[in-house]
Fold these 2 entries.
Entry 1:
Amino acid sequence: KKIVAALAALAVSATVLIAPAQAQDKKYTIALIPGLTTDGFYITMRKGAQAAADALGVNLVFQGAPDFNPVTQVPVLDAVIAKKPDAILIAPTDKVQLVEPLRKANDAGIPVITVDTFIGSGVYQTGAGDADFPLSYIASDNVLGGEIAARALATSIGDKGKVYVSNVKPGISTTDQREEGFKKEMAKHPGITVLETQFNDDDANKAASQLQAVFARNPDLVGVFGANLFSALGAANGVKQAGQTGTVKVVAFDAPTSIVDNINTGLVDVAIAQHPAEIGYYGVVSAYAHLTGHSIPVTIGTGFTIMDKSNIADPNISKYLYSE
Ligand code: T6T
C-alpha cells in the first residue's frame, strides 16, 4: 500500500513538474512581414530575428512584398493570418491603411507587434483610439534621426544655403517622422532654406532625376537629406550625375554596403545607420516573452551609428552596415 501511495504521489509531482516544461517545449511560429523583401534594412532585420528565433527554438517565417506599398503588403498579411502563426511582427507600410488589415489578425487572437514603422499614433495599449491594439513598437527614434541628419547637413554646408528632403511618400511613420525632425531642427538655422520635399516612391532612379531637376531650378542648392536607403542612394547618384560631388552635400539615412564607397569618395558626407538586426532580435524576443506569459515593454527604442569618412574603416562602426 505504501509503495502504491508513494508511486501515486510521485506521479502527481511528476505531472506538476512536467506540465510547465511541456508548455515551454511548444514550438512557436512567429511571422515577420517586412516593408519589402529586397531592402538591406529588412534583410538585416531578418538576420537579427533569425538569431533570436534560433536561440529560443522558435520557427521564424519571413514573408513580404517586393515593393513598399500597402496594396501589395495587405494580401501578404492576409495570407499570413490564414496560416495562424502564434504572433506577427510587421513593418506596416502605411500608418492608416494597415489598421483594419491588422485588426483582423488581432481579432483572430494573433498578437501583433510592429517593428520599424507603426500604425495610428504609434502609442499602443492605451485603451484609446482605434489603432492601439499592437502590443509593442520596436524601432529607431525617427524624429531624433531627422534632427541628427539636419545637424550633420547644417555643419557640412557651413549653416547656410538651400537644401531639400528626398523622401518616399507621405503616410509612412518612419520617413514622415524623419522629415518632421529634420525640419524642426532646421528651423533653428536661419541661414538655411528648406525647399519643397521631393517624393520618390522608394525608387532610387526617381530620386536621382528629382535631384537633377531641383538643381536645375536652384543652381545654388547646397545639400540634400535622403530620408531612407533608396532616397539617399538615388539623391547621391543624382548629385554625381549633375557633376556636383562635394558641392551639393548629401546626408543619408540608412547604411547599405555601397554607402562606404560613397563616403570615401566624398559623395556622401554622413550616413545614419539604424540597427535593424537589433529591431528584429528584440521583436522575436518580445513576441516569445508575451507567448510564454511575460509582460513586455510597449516600446523598445533602438539606436543609431553615425558614419563618416573619419570612422567608416573602424570595424566597430562598419559592423552596422546592412547585409545584402
Ligand atoms: O529606412 C528604412 C526603414 O526604416 C523605413 O521605414 C523604410 O525604408 C527603409 O527600409 C530603407 O529603405
Entry 2:
Amino acid sequence: MKDRIKKLQKEKDVAILAHYYVDGEVQEIANYVGDSFYLAKTATKLKNKIIIMAGVYFMGESIKILNPEKTVHMVDVYADCPMAHMITIRKIKEMREKYDDLAVVCYINSTAEIKAYCDVCITSSNAVKIVSKLKEKNIFIVPDGNLASYIAKQVKNKNIILNEGYCCVHNLVHLENVIKLKNEYPNAKVLAHPECKEEILNLADYIGSTSGIIEEVLKGGDEFIIVTERGIQHKIYEKAPNKKLYFADTLICKSMKKNTLEKIEKILLEGGDELEVDDEIAKKALIPLERMLELAG
Ligand code: 13P
Ligand code: SF4
C-alpha cells in the first residue's frame, strides 16, 4: 500500500504532510514530516496544488487559511484536537474590555473562529520568542494554560494571563512516574513538551516542541526520559536506532491515530471532502497566522 500511495502521490502531484504523532507508517509515506510550526510554514512554500494533511483539524485549517488557492484534504476530518475548543470568543472579548494594553495570543491549537479574534499565533517552538517581541504588557494566551504558565516563567517582564484549557493527553502524565524513571535512570535527560503540567516541567532538563525534543535526542547522549506522545519515537528510532528512550506514561493522542494509509489511498484515488473555511473568518484568521510567520523569522 505504501508503494501504491507513493506512486499515486507522484502521478497526481499531491503533497502529503504529517505530524510526528501520527503512526510511523503514515510518517513514512509523507513528503514532509514535522512539528506544527514547520508544517504551517512548509505549506506556504509548496508548488503542489493539492495537500493532504495527516494530523489534526487545526493543522489542515491553518494550511488552508495560509493557502486559500490550494485544495486541502484532511486524512480524517474527525481528527480534532479537543484543546482547540477550550476557549470562547466571549472570554476573549471580556479580557479585551478588562485590559487596555492587551495582546491576545493564540496557540495554533485553536479553531479558525478563535484565531479570527486573536492578535498573533504561536506554536510551542516559537512561543517564547514571539511573546518576548510583543509590545503589549498584558498577554492573554489561549487555549493552553500549561503552555502559558511555561511562557510566564520564561518571559518575566509581561503579565501573562492564563486560560484554563489543556491537552487531555499531556495533562495525563503522572508526576510519580517521571520521578520513578528519574530514579531508575539517573543519567537520562528528561525531555518534555510544554503542554505538560508545571509540576512535570519542573523536572525537565529540556522543554520544547516535538521537533525540539527530537533534535535534543539526536544532538548527543544515550538515554532519555521522554514526556510527550509516543508517535515521536518513530523519527528518533529511524535516525538513531540505538538511543534508549523511556516514556513516563503511554501517551497516545487518539485523534492523531485516526490518520491511516487506507484513508490516504482513498483520497488519492477518489478525492475527498475539501477542507473549507468561511471567507470572512479566513481573512481575519490569516492576520495572526502571518504575524507568527513574520515574528518567528
Ligand atoms: P508541536 O508544535 O510541538 O508539534 O505540538 C503540536 C501538538 O499538538 C502537541 O500536542
Ligand atoms: Fe491536541 Fe493534545 Fe492531541 Fe496535541 S496531543 S493534537 S494538543 S489532543
